[in-house]
Amino acid sequence: MKDITESQESGQESDEKIQERGQWSSKLEFVLSVAGSIIGLGNMWRFPYLCYKNGGGAFLIPYLIFLFTCGIPTFVLETALGQYTSEGGITCWRKISPLFEGLGYGTQVIVSLLNCYYIIVLAWAIFYLYYSFSWDLPWSSCCNSWNLEVQTHYVYLIRVNRRRVLRLSPGIDQMGSVNWDLALCLLIAWIMCYFCIWKGVKSTGKVVYFTATFPYLMLLVLLIRGLTLPGAVRGIQFYLYPDVGRLADPQVWMDAGTQIFFSYALCLGSLTALGSYNKYNNNCYRDCLALCFLNSGTSFVAGFAIFSILGFMSYEQNVPISEVAESGPGLAFIAYPRAVSMMPFSPLWACFFFIMIIFLGLDSQFVCVESLVTAIVDMYPAVFRRKNRRELLLFVVSFLSFLVGLIMLMEGGMYVFQLFDYYAASGMCLLFMAIFETVCIAWVYGADHFYDNIEDMIGYRPGPLIKYCWKFFTPFTCISTFAFSLVKYTPLRYNSVYVYPWWGYAVGWLLALSSMLCIPSWMIFKIASTKGTLIERLKILTKPSSDLPKTKKEEERLLAIFTVGNSALPHKDDILPEHLKDTKF
């Protein structure tokens, strides 16, 4: 009986044992996970439109400037920070500089809000996918009960989207009821997201082999089909025709900067979380450069697929391309379905297309959720790194986000969705985070110090350009762009027509400030709660944690100090009397 009791107790102890943090099984899993995170819906529907809107090929000039001065340096910083500290998006900053821990909280607030609304796009895609399982696609003809008698396919698709999918109300003050068919689609999306990451990197690393590669196959198919349509050349000309005069417009530079931060998932903590599961000696610098060029290259190629289709629509309707070119969900759920419906075996291609949209969004979604869960688990490892605790935390995060998402599936939910998209994860919030990230690493922790850490991990020192970007170019560019966004701020208008009530804009600014205020609030709290003079408090709060990995140079320096200290101590034979020298102590 005693043996049985002891075995039960030992079994309980093993169940309650703190589990290891885990690592990627291979470098490829890390690369595919990051690729899936950064290569998402924005590459397909935002970059091409901005390129067309802001001077065609001339837009590539500010885009590339922001890429090399802000995008790549910040991308390397966040990924290397995660790999060096092996911590999530909050505790990594706590270890680098406790004064800047608010950075971690701010990024996770953005991620929490992003988790609630980004997945709505997946719900729409699942809805369209369901209706694609019919020989005659519902949006390929004008014979459905929910449609008005409109003969133009393009206008028809808009009607389908607004009347059948969204059931859009006149305004945000008329929220109406929940669209339960879309709610079911949202539930399916969250179930997929949950099981993609429920076992951490063990499950995520396997899922991305398919979810991160399949969209490229479909993009190639759509590109080939688009280039063979009549009018495709007209669309590509609009896409790339350079208008150098547009470079004098500050808004063009603002769009280029915000696009870099959007498409590279910067200042969300997701890169830090993914990098934290790397082995210490992984060459993260080389991985980052390859991923950055892959991301921008995908955006550029996607533009050909999109604008060849828009050129065809312009040709078919004999209208300027400006009347059919859109950005955002309208492009994916209006323009693309029209092109797919023209292909042979259109239901098959429609299914593939919306599966591609789902996978593009799913990758980005579950990485953001993983970022939040990783941050919480790393803050409280004794609580959540136990059997089934992490899975329970993931369920709670998913369920709460699902409930918030239901608000955006009401008849007035699209207005709420636009508020989240315009304010919660706006370029303004991301730029604000980037300013403090680069200042913390370059000036508080030390750019050279961080370069030493990177050298210790990868075996060589990266070129000096990135270091100078951290110290000068990136913060200056982000501050300038942030200031410009404040000066040129224009309130949100849905479809450029609907004006929100005053309280709607108040909710929007509350969403934006909820993340930005985390940084100064935390600084004030830590300074006030630390003892000593102001200078002493700042020294304590800007000192890195002592348990961070030491570089070889630091270990050699400590060994030298220890050796010198020991050699300075007198030997016992020099201080003991003759009769005690042979005594063993």
Automatic annotation (TrEMBL):
Region (Disordered) residue spans: 1-20
Chief place where the protein resides: membrane
SUPFAM superfamilies cross-referenced by the UniProt entry: SNF-like
GO molecular function, one term: gamma-aminobutyric acid:sodium:chloride symporter activity
Bilayer topology: Multi-pass membrane protein
Top-level taxon in the UniProt lineage: Eukaryota
Name of the featured protein: Transporter
Name of the gene encoding the protein in the UniProt record: SLC6A13
